[in-house]
Amino acid sequence: MIECNKLTRRYGRMLALDGIDLHIGAGELHAFVGPNGAGKTTAMRILATLMRPTSGDALVDGVSVVQNPQRARQLVGYMPDFFGVYDNLKAWEYLDLYAGCMGIGAKDRRRRIDGLLGLTALTDKREAYVDGLSRGMKQRLCLARALLHDPKLLILDEPASGMDPRARAQMQEILSEIGSMGKTVLISSHILPELATLCTHATILDHGSVRFSGSVSELEARMNMREALTLRLAGEPDEDMAGRVEACVQELLGITPERTQPDTWRIPGEAQKDAQLLAALVALGAPVCDFHREHATLERVFMEVMRDEAQSDL
Amino acid sequence: MKLNPIFESSARRRMRMGKTPVILTAYLAAMLVFAVCELSAFFGQGVGVAKMRTGIEGYIWMTAIQFFLIILVAPALSAGSIAGERERQTFDLLLVTGVGTRRMVLGKLTENLAFLVLMILCSAPVMSLVLVTGGVSAADVLATLLYLAVIALAALSVGMVMSAIFRRTLVAVIASYLAIFAIGAGTWALAKHGPIAAAYTYDGLNHLASAGTPAAIRSLPVTILLNPAVGLVMLLAGQTGILHRTMQTTMRLYDIYTVSGYAGFTPVAWVILGAMLAAALLMTALACLILHLQTGAASRRR
Lengths: 314, 302
Description:
Chain A is built from eleven helices and 14 strands. Chain A is an alpha/beta fold. Chain A has a six-stranded mixed beta sheet with strand order 6-7-8-3-9-10, with helices on both faces. In chain A, strand 7 (153-157), helix 6 (165-180) and strand 8 form a beta-alpha-beta unit. In chain A, helix 3 packs across helix 4 and helix 9 runs antiparallel to helix 10 (274-284). The model of chain A has no long low-confidence stretch (mean pLDDT 86). By secondary structure, chain B is mostly helical. Chain B has helices at residues 5-16, 19-39, 52-87, 91-95, 101-122, 124-127, 130-133, 138-165, 169-192, 204-209, 228-240, 244-251, 254-260, 265-301. The two termini of chain B are 38 Å apart. Mean pLDDT of chain B is 80; it is low at 195-219 and 254-260. The chains are: A alpha/beta, B mainly alpha. The A-B interface holds A 11, 48-52, 54, 70, 73-74, 76, 78, 80, 82-89, 93, 96-103, 145, 149 and B 5-6, 8-9, 12-13, 16-17, 88-90, 92-99, 103, 296, 299-300, 302.
């Protein structure tokens, strides 16, 4: 659905996007993650045809956003990180304005507006003035606006910023529903745990470069391999058993485990020899009742990727 | 007929704004106060030829007040239209709909004009008080209202250009007032004091001024053609015959009156109206062009 080829964007001397190559498949719920100033909004604005790249190109469903922005606009629904609402306008009138600007015929307009107000749980706010809506409602109304022309790609820049947990959960629910409609959704956010549960794929951007791009499960698996192993025995072992367990780990992995509890050890290092270690411990007669690696959160994964890249840059 | 959605939405919002009825009321109140002051001489005294001049003077004053109110209100209306969209952060949202800068400018401009035309139409009954005293016909009153509407359009288009150039509404409003003042004062000063002003001739106007008198308005300074206030004064002079001395002495238009009497002013007023219309169209096109370049170039620069 999205193909970025050597997409570069400069602001004077500052390089906001450093020739990124990116592929986002159709139907993906794709998280766009990165610290402030990483280039997320710049990339999104280019894809939304609001900005031209300094060099390179981006294709949306095969249409170049540089060569054919007018056609690309019909394929993209864009929701920026601000509301952009008018005073003295009712919710349905707000959507009607944009539908009119998009050239949607009057007959079709009402049906679409009602459908989208339903999707975004705003049907009962149809006649309410936009400036009187809560922050979460305004955000959902803006989402409805971005969906008016039934775009194939939805670009959401920080859709949950400044919302309370309940409003965020509601937004997440709606986005899941939109994902199930087969639309490709590109979401940037700082609230990483939410993206982890919502998104199927992720791209990590930093200093205008892609640090990682792939499926969330792939990313997590990569990181889970590096989480410390927790080993716990059933009941407190005697010193002999404890010594044998530590010697076994030392022999197999070449590291000394850290005894965090009388019956528990924390074993750093990677997971390649996990099966071998477990077999050896069982063969020793150690009563293993817990043998697991922590599940990495996307937030932690993000920090790890950033740290790795920083180190490799040195 | 398919309405421009930006016109429709802006008009809807305008009529819901609390300040709209306040502006309309204040506008009419200002006119009514002058009407009552000027025409109070008639109340309870019947109508006579001797009093006609007072009625006509009242009509001229009311027109002048409308002119200044329009010049005051129009830039504030249009200068905020595009800059306001930017401040509200809705400009990008409109842009991604593919609506285009031309429809955006035309939607805003026509909505602003519709509101000013509404103000002018509301003033029609007050202006028509002059019909009671006589001296001016209903057609004259309509012509004056039309003239005011074109002045409103020209003033709005200046504001629209500034709204396209400047990102902040306040800056755009100030720039519009300065531009309008510069156009008014500049053309007047050039015509009245400029060393080359008297040397200008505009022979094309000869035919309009008075058939068979080719040298009728040889001394008309061309820059005057760009001054809406002069056009309005000429229209009123043509209609009423009262302002011709002002015309002669301050605008070096001696020949018109000498040759064709005060009726010679009216055709020149209509020429100025045409020039204003052309200038308004040009400025609207300029606003579209600036915005078009900005949205293309801004995306390159920003």
